[in-house]
């Protein structure tokens, strides 16, 4: 997992059994490959971490089969993981990620 720099505008808060991560709206939209304006992007995403890259692909396929829309196909990402995004039928964005913590 990438460590954040002291001057980063990202904040992480450990909670019981999960994390709350806060990113600037523009950065979050850029990661999801959507526009940051108010044309359908609520300014939040829900992240779901899985154990393997294959699970990322499977969850995105399952979401699409259930009526979701893949907005960013899964791909290797700069922080060393693998992730993609889908919008559920209510247009909420979900990030599905394999947060590679060690070298495979």
Automatic annotation (TrEMBL):
Pfam families membership: Glyoxalase
MF terms (GO), sorted A to Z: dioxygenase activity
InterPro entries named in the record: Glyas_Bleomycin-R_OHBP_Dase (IPR029068), Glyas_Fos-R_dOase_dom (IPR004360), VOC_core (IPR037523)
UniProt keywords, alphabetically: Dioxygenase, Oxidoreductase
Tagged with keyword Manganese: no
Domain VOC: 1-99
Protein name: Glyoxalase/bleomycin resistance protein/dioxygenase
Species assigned in the record: Halogeometricum pallidum JCM 14848
């Amino acid at each position: 997992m990438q460590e954040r720099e002291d001057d980063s505008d990202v904040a992480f808060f450990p909670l019981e059994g999960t994390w709350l991560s806060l990113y600037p709206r523009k950065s979050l939209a850029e990661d999801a490959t959507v526009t940051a304006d108010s044309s359908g992007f609520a300014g939040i995403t829900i992240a779901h971490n899985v154990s393997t890259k294959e699970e990322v692909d499977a969850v995105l396929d399952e979401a699409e089969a259930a009526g979701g829309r893949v907005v960013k196909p899964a791909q290797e990402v700069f922080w060393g993981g693998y992730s993609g995004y889908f919008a559920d039928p209510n247009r909420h964005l979900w990030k599905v990620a394999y947060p590679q913590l060690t070298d495979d």
